[in-house]
Design goal:
7-stranded antiparallel sheet, about 50% helix, alpha+beta, 3-stranded antiparallel sheet
Length: about 350
């Protein structure tokens, strides 16, 4: 039976790897637009002069700006060469296919090649991209695009620095308006400390696998592993929800679409860990060891390691504090990796017991 379970584990792991490779392109594209963390804090100071019904905020850890227009009038976002770039009004959202910003802002790095039709001096050619009153876009004026930090940051990287004040011009009919904001460098945390705490925690959880499965304490150890998996899975579900809310998703439908398009692996592994933990709590038999090991491995890989960049970044892509985000990721890694180690140890002990000669 143990060999059958191990064979099934190999097949499931191979299937998971294949599925990951097949879905890597969309996930990578989403990750490029929504960074896992950054050391640059982008904030907006609002619209000046103020326009009732016109709202702006920063989403995706500063990667995008979001503008919502409920004024009843069309508002234009001006591109990098002074040309009309976006238009948001009662009839929806339009982009100017002749604005270079239309193509440069498709990626966070701004490295899209410009087509021949991109000409800021040409009359606008408007193309509808959404029916609602809200638009989100990358804007290089609110970002730090260089690979190296600014000179003042390199001179004193352990202090917070104001990199620059930025503005994005708008146009309300014939009236000029502007979005204002700030860009700051925030010193990153000590990643080694977070990794050290995580490693100590996962070793402690993995040690539960050393308790003899046949003893009464072994059943309690399996129950503890199941409870930890339920907790880690719940955290793994909440974290991607936070990422989608930080990315500007609104309403249940918007959150669900965002989860399925960019955070589906973290969501599914979190739900799977909850189910596996519940199974371990209610089914005290060898199959539960296999389920715990497999669910823990998926949880650690797809929900833990995938978000571990927050250990080394000062700004996390969630609507709560970066410290809380790091604790959540550490908890997912501890429960996932620890449960994997404990499950493997229990399976190995069971296989040795089965192979031992009967006196």
């Amino acid at each position: 039976m143990i060999r059958t379970l191990l064979a099934r584990a190999g097949l499931v792991a191979a299937a998971a790897c294949a599925a990951t490779l097949l879905t890597a392109a969309p996930a990578a594209a989403h990750g490029a637009d929504a960074p896992d963390g950054t050391d640059y804090r982008t904030r907006t100071t609002g619209v000046a002069p103020a326009r009732p019904g016109l709202e702006v905020r920063v989403v995706e850890a500063g990667a995008r700006l979001e503008l919502t227009n409920r004024t009843g009038r069309a508002i234009e976002v001006i591109g990098y060469s002074g040309e009309p770039y976006l238009r948001v009004g009662p009839d929806g959202v339009f982009e100017n296919s002749r604005s270079p910003a239309t193509y440069l802002n498709r990626t966070l790095a701004g490295d899209t090649a410009l087509p021949a039709e991109a000409d800021p001096a040409a009359p606008p050619s408007w193309r509808r991209i959404d029916d609602g009153p809200t638009v989100r876009w990358h804007d290089q004026r609110a970002l730090w695009q260089e690979s190296a930090p600014p000179a003042e940051v390199r001179a004193a990287p352990d202090r917070e620095h104001r990199v620059r004040d930025w503005t994005v011009p708008l146009r309300d009919g014939a009236d000029p308006v502007a979005i204002g904001g700030t860009l700051d460098w925030v010193p990153p945390p000590d990643a080694y400390t977070w990794w050290a705490v995580t490693i100590v925690g996962l070793l402690a959880v993995g040690a539960l696998g050393l308790v003899a499965a046949g003893a009464p304490a072994g059943g309690r150890a399996l129950g503890a592993l199941g409870a930890l998996l339920v907790v880690g899975g719940a955290v793994a579900v909440v974290y991607p929800l936070g990422r989608e809310l930080d990315a500007g998703a609104q309403g249940v439908g918007g959150v669900v679409v965002g989860l399925l398009s960019g955070q589906v692996w973290s969501l599914l592994t979190g739900l799977g860990a909850i189910a596996a933990g519940w199974y371990a709590l209610t089914r005290r038999r060898p199959a539960a060891d296999f389920v715990v090991a497999l669910a823990g491995a998926c949880l650690a890989l797809f929900a833990g390691a995938a978000n571990a960049a927050v250990f080394a970044r000062s700004i996390a892509p969630v609507p709560w504090s970066p410290g809380v985000a790091r604790v959540m990721v550490a908890l997912v890694l501890i429960t996932g990796t620890g449960a994997t180690a404990a499950g493997i140890l229990r399976l190995h002990a069971a296989s040795r017991l089965a192979a031992a000669p009967t006196p």
